[in-house]
Write a structure and sequence with these properties.
CATH topology: Rossmann fold
Largest sheet: 7 strands, mixed
Structural class: alpha/beta
Strand order of the largest sheet: 3-2-1-4-5-11-10
Number of helices: 9
Number of strands: 11
CATH class: Alpha Beta
Radius of gyration: 18 Å
Helix content: 25-40%
CATH architecture: 3-Layer(aba) Sandwich
Shape: globular
């Protein structure tokens, strides 16, 4: 296959990545503008204390968005790199940069050459965006390659069982002058959120698609390169309960 064909295939693949398109719009940030900063701050404080992370530990915030968690790790004395596929999110995070905090655009399925970390954090259900388990495994291989020996992986995911049981089929969310019409569905493997709205006489439609991954799925995905050390069910690090917990939070060590 020639270089042109390879480049064309890469471009077509990227166009199919729903997260690359949706996450890079200002509409995405408008819809999710009311995220709980105090909750996030408390969670990072709990994690740093629980893991007893030494000052100057090297932390990668993988799929960092606008950098709120990365910034909080930095405030606890860590050396932090935040990466995200969205150029607009990274541009928004850049003003937070300092001597121990930096941001760059990066695809989390690929390792970052020349970097090793003590902790890699993948937070706020930033896993399972892909169509297949093979892409999940590719991401985890990249993570393993970037972790120092005995380095730690922190995954904060939704509790898929509870989310599916309480799925809100349809709702309208008002943000400023825009009305977002949202519908949700589960097809047996993925949870879909369809988002429709109009702005300046133009109609928009985006679809979020996340794999419904359960604890057993993560155990199978992680077993080759990681050992799961702890499993929690919320940001206060209470025990995970399949039916009642809001989150599925995993701490794993690289083998």
């Amino acid at each position: 296959m020639d270089n042109f064909s390879i480049s064309l295939n890469f471009i077509l693949m990227k166009k199919q990545d729903w997260f690359a398109n949706w996450f890079d719009t200002h509409y995405y940030h408008l819809l999710y503008q009311n995220r709980n900063e105090e909750e996030a701050k408390g969670f990072i404080q709990e994690i740093v204390a629980f893991l007893k992370l030494p000052i100057n530990s090297k932390v990668l915030d993988l799929a960092c968005g606008k950098g709120r968690h990365a910034h909080m790790f930095c405030q606890h004395g860590m050396q932090v790199l935040g990466v995200d596929l969205s150029p607009n999110s990274i541009a928004a995070a850049k003003p937070l940069e300092n001597d121990t905090l930096s941001f760059s655009v990066h695809d989390m399925r690929e390792p970052i050459a020349g970097h090793k970390f003590d902790l890699i954090a993948n937070l706020f259900t930033s896993f399972g965006y892909f169509d297949t388990q093979e892409e999940n495994k590719k991401m985890l291989l990249a993570i393993a390659a970037m972790l120092d020996k005995n380095g730690l992986l922190l995954i904060d995911f939704m509790n898929a069982k509870k989310v599916i049981a309480n799925l809100v089929a349809a709702e309208t969310v008002q943000r400023d002058t825009l009305s977002f019409d949202i519908s949700r569905r589960f097809d047996g493997t993925h949870i879909f959120k369809d988002i429709q709205f109009s702005d300046e006489d133009e109609d928009f439609h985006y679809t979020e698609r996340v794999q419904a991954l359960y604890l057993e799925d993560f155990k199978a995905l992680l077993e080759a390169d990681f050992e799961i050390l702890h499993t929690f069910g919320d940001f206060e690090l209470n025990a995970f309960d399949t039916s009642h917990s809001d989150r599925l939070i995993l701490i794993a060590k690289r083998k």
